[in-house]
Amino acid sequence: MIETDLVSVFALTQSVGAAMIAAGRGSVINSASLGAERALDRYPLVAYNAAKAGVVAMTRSLAALFDPARIGRIMAAANSTIGSLTSDSMPG
Fold first, then answer.
1. Number of domains in the chain
2. 61 C-beta neighbours (distance < 10 Å), count
3. CATH number of the domain within which 69 lies
4. Contact assessment for residue 20 and residue 74, using Cβ atoms and an 8 Å cutoff
5. What range does the domain containing 39 cover?
6. For residue range 26-76, what is the model confidence (pLDDT) as tens digits?
7. Where are the beta strands (DSSP E) in the chain?
8. What is the pTM assigned to this prediction?
């Protein structure tokens, strides 16, 4: 889960970031989760929560690193629960 929810986001953001720097513009919106800020009590998704907390920290670091005047915006959006194979299998 760390590979899917954190490492892949890092790799994609790194790749897109290079293109954005070359173009002098662009935006990154990473998918975060409420689990990054607090434990999800419906189901203990420890690896998922840790990965999403990593996404939030990475996004904050990249926003500070990239010059907003040259690149655009870098942000993370945290949705509430959405239907997926993982959430559909959760109790409650």
1. 1
2. 11
3. 3.40.50.720
4. no
5. 2-81
6. 889 999 988 888 776 666 688 888 999 999 999 999 888 887 667 778 889
7. 26-33, 72-79
8. 0.77
